[in-house]
Each structure stands twice: as C-alpha cells, then as structure tokens.
C-alpha cells in the first residue's frame, strides 16, 4: 500500500517553485517546515524535497482555505493537531508484502527454528510498520505454508508488535484489509492459506491477525515496551533520519533486543556508531546481538 507516493517520489524537486494550482513554497517556509519535521519526528528534509513537501501539503492549505505557505507555517506553529497532521502527511508509507525477501528467507531458515526450540515468550517488533504488509509477512512466516505448520503457535506465547507514527496506517494494520493488487505479490501457498476474499479485496486470516498488536508510536518518544525483543524489523525508516538520530535509534534497538536477538534494516541502510560495533553481521542488512556471556 502506498499512502502518499513511494520512496522514489522523494528524489525529485527543486527549491522555491510554484505551479498554477499550488501556492509557492519559499526557502524560508520550507526551512520552517523542515525544522518542525525534525523536532517532531526527527525526519530530515533536504531542499531537494521542496516539490514533494509543496505537493503533499497543498491539500492541507486548501482544507484551511489558505493561499500562502507562510500562513500555513504560522498555523502549524500554533496548532499541535495540525502539526501532527502535517508530520503524517509528510511521511512516506510505501511498503509491500515480502519486501526484501532475503530477510524472510533468513528469518525462516535460521531465526525461526531457534525460536521454536526455545521455551518462553517470542516477541517480534515491526518498527515503522506502515500499513502492515511487513508485520503480516512475518506472521505468515510464523504460520507457515499450511494449517498443519501453524499448529505450534497454539502452544506458544508469540506476539508481534507493529508501530508507526502515522495513525491512518496503524488503522490499516488493525483492519488487516488489502486490495487485490497488493496481495498479488504474496507467494503461494501463503496467499491462499492466510488471506480470505472480502468485498473489494482480501483480509488477513484471523490466525494472523490475532498475533498482531498495532499501535501509534513515534520512535523518538519513550517506548512503552516491557519485554526484550527477539527480532526487530526497522526497514526503510531510518533512511529518513540524519546520522545522529540513526545512531541514537539503532542503539535503542540494540538495547531492546534480547541477547541473541536479530535486527533487520532496509536495503539501503547500514548500522553506524556503537550499534555497528555491538552487533554481529549475518548477511546484508541483518544483524545478531551477541549471546549473553556466562
Ligand atoms: C517507507 S515506510 C517502511 C515500511 C516497512 N517497514 C517497509 O520496509 O516496507 C516508513 C514508515 O516509517 C514511518 N515513520 C517515519 N518516521 C517515524 C518516526 N519518527 N516514528 C515512527 N514511525 C516513523 C512512516 O510513517 C512510514 O510508515
């Protein structure tokens, strides 16, 4: 599902431009918006994103009957709700099922057998989950290719947490509904086993949905997480942050992982800072936290 354009939409743009139907976004107003995005979500907007910001916020200006970005900036500076709406409008929610499939190959072949052997709770987090294709891909990997392969879950304490800063995508996870073209990329037999036809598309099977809890969470706020996590997926999220924010977040993920836990990051990302030194690489963009000594 793509709420407001894919990652590629972020590539274009030039500073201070206008079109007949859009208000002009001056460098000064762009800088004010970029500062708010950094403060609220640590999202780093460079001037190359001017066109993207202008087009995504055009509707916000229209809804408020504003003709000038300077008036919109003044509005978001005084109105916390509109500030949140703006942050969400400027997130990129592009995602799909079985994205970066080598992660799921590694998860099924290496991580899952380890988790199944172990007694005790299994906790997995999709951080920056967008509309849920990632977390439901993980759920389908846990359930396996048929109903028999899912039977181990009846006796296991397994929970998948899916979080995102954008409430509308979190609601999509909770609904578990996907359009036909979205589910087309799910390989068989997962698709026919774990999706049910519904008016206008498909819904995830109850067996998958009951594993998942979806919540709104800004990754730079306090995390209300009690458990240590066995696996964290934070993919194609940190690309939007500058290095200090990445460094801080990656170290928090390492701290939240149980010893021996795994972290998967997006295809164009890499660990930096202390997290890079503390984690063992298990292949491209896959990392393991060292087992506890003793
Ligand atoms: C491109 S999607 C990635 C979805 C999925 N992880 C994947 O790889 O397909 C990035 C998501 O990160 C979320 N996001 C961006 N900044 C965030 C923040 N500070 N806290 C939580 N989520 C954030 C966005 O709302 C968006 O849904």
Automatic annotation (TrEMBL):
Keywords: Methyltransferase, S-adenosyl-L-methionine, Transferase
Positions of region (Disordered): 1-22
InterPro entries in UniProt: Bact_Chemotaxis_MeTrfase (IPR050903), Chemotaxis_MeTrfase_CheR (IPR026024), CheR_C (IPR022642), CheR_MeTrfase (IPR000780), CheR_N (IPR022641), CheR_N_sf (IPR036804), SAM-dependent_MTases_sf (IPR029063)
Chain residues that bind S-adenosyl-L-methionine: 93, 95, 99, 134, 164, 218-219, 235-236
Any one Pfam family match given in the protein's UniProt record, by short name: CheR_N
Functional note: Methylation of the membrane-bound methyl-accepting chemotaxis proteins (MCP) to form gamma-glutamyl methyl ester residues in MCP.
Name of this chain's protein: Chemotaxis protein methyltransferase
Species assigned in the record: Sphingomonas hengshuiensis
């Amino acid at each position: 599902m793509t709420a407001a354009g894919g990652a590629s939409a972020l590539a274009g743009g030039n500073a201070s431009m206008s079109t007949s139907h859009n208000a002009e976004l001056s460098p000064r107003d762009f800088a004010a918006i970029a500062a708010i995005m950094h403060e609220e979500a640590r999202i780093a907007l460079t001037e190359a994103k001017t066109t993207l910001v202008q087009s995504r916020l055009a509707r916000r200006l229209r809804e408020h009957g504003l003709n000038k970005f300077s008036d919109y900036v003044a509005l978001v500076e005084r109105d916390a709700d509109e500030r949140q709406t703006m942050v969400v409008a400027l997130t990129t929610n592009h995602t799909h099922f079985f994205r970066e499939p080598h992660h799921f190959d590694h998860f099924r072949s290496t991580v899952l057998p380890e988790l199944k052997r172990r007694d005790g709770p299994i906790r997995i987090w999709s951080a920056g989950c967008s509309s849920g294709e990632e977390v439901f891909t993980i759920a389908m990997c846990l359930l396996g290719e048929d109903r028999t392969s899912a039977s181990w879950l009846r006796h296991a304490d397994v929970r998948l947490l899916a979080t995102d800063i954008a409430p509308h995508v979190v609601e999509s996870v909770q609904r578990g509904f996907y359009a036909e073209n979205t589910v087309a990329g799910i390989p068989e037999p997962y698709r026919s086993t774990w999706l049910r036809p519904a008016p206008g598309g498909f819904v995830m099977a109850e067996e998958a949905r009951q594993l998942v809890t979806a919540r709104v969470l800004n990754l730079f706020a306090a995390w209300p997480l009690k458990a240590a996590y066995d696996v964290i997926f934070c993919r194609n999220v940190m690309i939007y942050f500058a290095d200090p924010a990445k460094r801080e977040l990656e170290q928090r993920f390492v701290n939240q992982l149980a010893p021996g836990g795994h972290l998967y990051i997006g295809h164009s990302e890499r660990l930096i800072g202390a997290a890079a030194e503390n984690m063992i690489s298990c292949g491209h963009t896959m990392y393991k936290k060292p087992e506890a000594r003793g």
